[in-house]
Amino acid sequence: MRVDTSYWGHEIGDMETIRIPNSATYSPVSLTDVMFAAPLASRLLMGATLPGRVLQAVAAGAYLGSAAGDWAARRGVRKIDFLATFAAGVDHMDEMSESERRADAMRCAEELMDVYEPVEARRSELAADVNERLTSYIAGITGQRVETSSEVRELTLARFLVPFAAGSCDVLSGDIAVFRSTGVFDAHLLAHEFCHRKGYYKELEAQALAYLALSASQDARLRQAALAERTYRNLRVLDDGDPRRFGRLLDETPLSGPVLEDFVRLRPPDAREGWLTGAMRDLYDSRMKLTGQNGLSDYDLGFTNFLHTYEKARQEGRVA
Questions:
Q1: What does the pLDDT read at residue 309?
Q2: Could you list the residue range(s) of the whole structural domain that residue 152 is in?
Q3: Which of 4, 29, 142, 275 is the most buried (most CB within 10 A)?
């Protein structure tokens, strides 16, 4: 594991450390799933709901205890002020032109192919490295290490509630699930979910922090994931919702081999969205807007505009 020891002028060894226990993440099964599924499973398997309700009550107690412990630990966390630090935020971004976006996608794709190396580490090892990198990056800005669990599940009921997603995070318990391998994107997906675990609940902030932490890493496994995410999100904006156009845009890039396969697998050119996926996507988009976000566009349009705004501010010397 490669670990950087200082960022932005702060020495890691001298920092205050806050440990968020995330005890629910160490449970062999998701406590949330047990709470919802236990009564039904008990009825189907034993013809009675009482055993399921008892199990449900036990799981609920453990879940609430974990959430309370995490909440208490987070009270001392110093959060990043995005506008002050990056000159950009959910409501403060400059729009990229189409030509700028195409150039950015091409540049990132070329750099991605230059640095690419296959990821052979197990997910648990990659998750630990990603979590450490993210922790150190945030600490370099805030002067405070916020240490959290690196545990990741492979499946929860959330997989069926958000069928279009590659992963999820229960923001109360910190429970994270990654539903499928995304290849070169895996490290960014993990970093994004770990941002939620550390208390950054807005999707745009999680996208940006994950990218910024990984893109500056000397570890090619982490840096290439950031480049892949930025390339992919630019292409998603340019395809304007048309998977076939996404395929044509891919043909214009230098992406090849396993990297190209990962992009195609993430957004197949012949994909057709079912009614359930479409309905859940609309519901999630509305939920995001109700929580002070711009909706699902924060994942791609907002994310890439955020980076564009921040990098322009850096060039002009307005931020570090």
A1: 98
A2: 6-315
A3: 142
